[in-house]
Design goal:
This protein has 144 residues and is of the alpha+beta class. 25% of the residues lie in helices and 36% in strands. It has a single domain, classed as Thiol Ester Dehydrase, Chain A (Roll).
Length: 144
């Protein structure tokens, strides 16, 4: 994985207003995989000292988009079609979203995302589907 792609995606995070609030950063990037870490701060809590569930869903969606974008040199020629999230535990620490593309199709792609707290516990799990809009795979299998 080119280090330059990781830097371009991190630059996208730094330039987007919503991510100024979330302050995520890519900690790992590989083909079909992205680990996106977000620090815990009061501004992203739900008022009870835990990360707001919608913030966790945003983190998961972004990590999955970046994992899929590794196939398209960081271009985002796709859109979220569905995101299902199951919450297991309150997140009171930094959270890392670990997203992996698990199915590549010519139009629909599916990813699996674990949201993990600083203790390594899974706080939520997501399944996301992305519809290709302007990007396209020239193949159906994994790129390696």
């Amino acid at each position: 994985m080119p280090a330059e792609l990781k830097e371009r995606l991190n630059a996208r995070l730094r330039s987007h207003p919503v991510f100024h609030l979330l302050a995520p950063r890519i900690v790992e990037l590989d083909w079909d995989f992205c680990a996106l870490e977000m620090p815990f701060r009061a501004e992203i809590s739900n008022g009870y000292g835990v990360v707001h569930g919608g913030i966790l869903a945003t983190l998961a969606d972004t990590a999955m988009a970046f994992a899929l974008s590794t196939n398209f040199d960081g271009k985002m020629g796709f859109a979220t079609a569905d995101l299902t999230i199951h919450y297991f535990k309150r997140a009171r620490t930094d959270v890392t979203a670990r997203a992996r593309v698990i199915k590549k199709g010519r139009r629909m792609n599916v990813g699996d995302i674990d949201l993990v707290d600083a203790d390594g516990d899974v706080v939520a799990k997501c399944l996301a589907a992305f519809l290709l809009t302007t990007s396209s795979f020239d193949y159906a299998g994994p790129r390696r």
